[in-house]
Amino acid sequence: MAEFKVNIVTPAGIVYDHRASRVVARAVDGDIGILPNHSPIIVPLTINAVRVTRVSIDAEDWIAVNGGILEVRNNVCSIVADSAERARDIDLERAFEEKHRAEEEIKRLDAQKQNKDARLAEISLHKAINRISVSKHKK
């Protein structure tokens, strides 16, 4: 079976490093699928799940990625992100608390017409929802 290396790195360190047969991520222009021997490419990612089909265990890993850059070169798919969490590492209670805080902040800022701050709160909300969604794929 053809395979390639996948690694996800954040400022805190390596979050993911395995062999895979497929990666699916959400780029700014839509979903992108990466297979072995993919042409070199660099694309910006949105806040969303990255799905990695592992070779060694014949299973799919889910990682919550909060934006970043995906690069493919020489059968290596690298993702550099501000933050990323594997489904198994997500603290679901904390994610729901962050979601609630962001929703309350959006309501407060909308009432005050604070558009820039409201946009930041919307980003926080999207990150929390992404983490909650990915956490459903724990193994």
Describe the structure.
The chain is an alpha+beta fold and 139 residues long. The two termini are 24 Å apart. The protein has two helices and seven strands. The chain has helices at residues 92-112, 115-135, and strands at residues 4-10, 13-27, 30-34, 41-54, 60-73, 76-80, 84-86. Strands 1-2-4-5-6 form a five-stranded mixed β-barrel. The radius of gyration is 16 Å and the shape is elongated. It folds into two domains: 4-87, F0F1 ATP synthase delta/epsilon subunit, N-terminal (ATP Synthase, domain 1, Sandwich), CATH 2.60.15.10; 92-135. GO terms for molecular function: ATP binding; proton-transporting ATP synthase activity, rotational mechanism. Keywords: ATP synthesis, Cell membrane, CF(1), Coiled coil, Hydrogen ion transport, Ion transport, Membrane, Transport. Residues 89-136 form the ATP synthase epsilon subunit C-terminal domain.
Key features?
5-stranded mixed β-barrel, 2 helices, alpha+beta, elongated, 45% strand, ATP Synthase, domain 1, 139 residues
Strand-helix topology:
Layout: E1 4-10, E2 13-27, E3 30-34, E4 41-54, E5 60-73, E6 76-80, E7 84-86, H1 92-112, H2 115-135
Parallel strand pairs: 1-6
Antiparallel strand pairs: 1-2, 2-3, 2-4, 4-5, 5-6, 5-7
Helix pairs in contact: 1-2
Pfam families: ATP-synt_DE, ATP-synt_DE_N
Domain ATP synthase epsilon subunit C-terminal: 89-136
GO molecular function, one term: ATP binding
